[in-house]
Write a sequence for this structure.
């Protein structure tokens, strides 16, 4: 038995796997990111700790204790913990946009590009650096009290084992020298964050380390002490491992809350446009070139709420429209943080166009789903896809949407073995570190292969070209300086407001 724990943004899950990779049980609990207004989103670390204990106990009930435990989960955000791995304040979610102005400042100053030229990673608003900068101005006492600027899975590892470490995949962005797998002091200096070097956990050497479940971890989970526990890689590389991405050039599309497109590579390119991530894999000399767009099922959620429909209706609605959505078009950039792949623009915003009184609810859903499929092609090609491509994530549960992605790509689409692809990848990583023998081909065999349809090829080739043209036009509008209103020269000047004095 191998246990995989996946700490998602809105769900905590534990999946128990047999030696052959069969998923024997899954348990889940919702976690609750809290929207505080003004783009601020935070999470309660202790709520997640409690959920981990509950899902592990439920998933393992009635089974022998697992031989190893692997942990993966959401990356980024800022989880400030004390020496006992307890939160010194609510965690700032990776969805939070208070880092936007700091990122824009680094883009304008050249620091953003300077970081990319060192480690091939493009900072985005929800990552450690902008959030540290935001708290330095907004809550400096929390940074002063913190012992660790942690990632979620690393905080859970510390609560289960006492080990204060991180893995190279999480640390890759923003501060790591991804060749040496250690922090780059020059990056910290470029961003003006040298004083927070003390908060960064030591990075585990490749391929990682396992730590024994301690008494506190045993009390939380109900499992016996001593079980080896491994945290890392985070969810993007873990899903790639769980989906069987093993050959250089192979890729994965994760249609989740966000759209993550990634390709396995054996080279680092710091000369490209500063966009996307280059994430260390557990093995030295391998990286994932990732384009994690902020579009995804969250975009579909938005349109469904707007038209009063449910997820159960999606395939039926798509069947009522046709390729091209009867002229309706969408740009899927509805996240308040803008877009981070395959371009970076904190001002990116979504749009619907081509609408008329003949446009139906089904056409709107079709247009939005097509826009996410176009974004997937845009991202996976930018990541360097040259081999096999797989798909996973909640959106892949829609057979119609998955077929659409295959049609837009005009490539066979391998459906990753379900359920819990991320937890499966975490279990594989734990077995590698713990020295447990297994058959990678069996653990990651595809459930199905979706062949692209020739009859939609022309429509989607034309639609993709239109999508790229619309993105280019929209970017020019997003970033155009607003015109100043003309003032009548003879009109009285407005009075200046009186400043309050203390």
């Amino acid at each position: 038995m191998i246990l995989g724990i996946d700490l998602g943004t809105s769900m905590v899950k534990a999946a128990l796997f047999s030696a052959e990779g069969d998923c024997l049980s899954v348990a889940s609990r919702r976690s609750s990111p809290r929207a505080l207004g003004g783009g601020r989103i935070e999470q309660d670390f202790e709520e997640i700790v409690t959920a981990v204990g509950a899902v592990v106990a439920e998933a393992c009930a009635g089974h022998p204790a697992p031989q190893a435990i692997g942990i993966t989960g959401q990356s980024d955000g800022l989880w400030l913990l004390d020496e006992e791995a307890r939160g010194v304040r609510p965690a700032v979610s990776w969805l939070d946009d208070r880092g936007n102005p700091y990122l824009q400042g680094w883009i304008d100053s050249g620091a953003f590009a300077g970081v990319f030229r060192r480690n091939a990673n493009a900072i985005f608003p929800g990552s450690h650096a902008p959030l540290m900068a935001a708290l330095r101005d907004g809550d400096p006492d929390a940074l002063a009290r913190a012992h660790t600027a942690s990632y979620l899975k690393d905080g859970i590892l510390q609560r289960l084992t006492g080990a204060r470490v991180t893995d190279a995949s999480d640390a890759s962005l923003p501060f790591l020298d991804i060749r040496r797998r250690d922090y780059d002091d020059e990056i910290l200096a470029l961003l003006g964050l040298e004083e927070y070097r003390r908060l960064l956990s030591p990075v585990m050497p490749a391929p990682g380390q396992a730590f024994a479940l301690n008494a506190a971890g045993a009390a939380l989970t109900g499992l016996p002490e001593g079980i080896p526990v491994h945290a890392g890689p985070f969810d993007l590389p873990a899903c790639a491992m769980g989906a069987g991405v093993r050959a250089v050039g192979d890729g994965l599309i994760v249609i989740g809350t966000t759209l993550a497109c990634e390709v396995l590579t054996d080279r680092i390119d710091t000369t490209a446009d500063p966009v996307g991530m280059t994430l260390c894999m557990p093995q030295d000399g391998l990286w994932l070139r990732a384009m994690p767009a902020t579009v995804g099922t969250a975009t579909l959620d938005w349109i469904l709420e707007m038209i009063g429909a449910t997820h159960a209706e999606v395939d039926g609605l798509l069947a009522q429209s046709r390729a091209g959505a009867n002229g309706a078009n969408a740009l899927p950039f509805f996240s308040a943080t803008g877009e981070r792949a395959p371009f970076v623009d904190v001002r990116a915003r979504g749009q619907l166009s081509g609408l008329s009184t003949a446009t139906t609810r089904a056409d709107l859903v079709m247009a939005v789903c097509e826009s996410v499929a176009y974004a997937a092609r845009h991202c996976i090609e930018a990541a360097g896809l040259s081999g096999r491509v797989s798909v996973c994530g909640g959106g892949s549960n829609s057979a119609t949407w998955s077929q659409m992605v295959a049609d837009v790509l005009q490539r066979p689409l391998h459906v990753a073995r379900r359920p819990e692809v991320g937890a499966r990848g975490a279990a594989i990583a734990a077995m590698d570190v713990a020295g447990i023998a297994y058959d990678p081909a069996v653990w990651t065999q595809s459930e199905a292969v979706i062949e692209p349809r020739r009859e939609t090829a022309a429509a989607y080739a034309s639609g993709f070209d239109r999508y790229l043209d619309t993105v280019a036009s929209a970017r020019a509008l997003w970033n155009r300086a607003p015109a100043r209103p003309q003032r009548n020269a003879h009109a009285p000047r407005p009075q200046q407001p009186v400043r309050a004095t203390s």
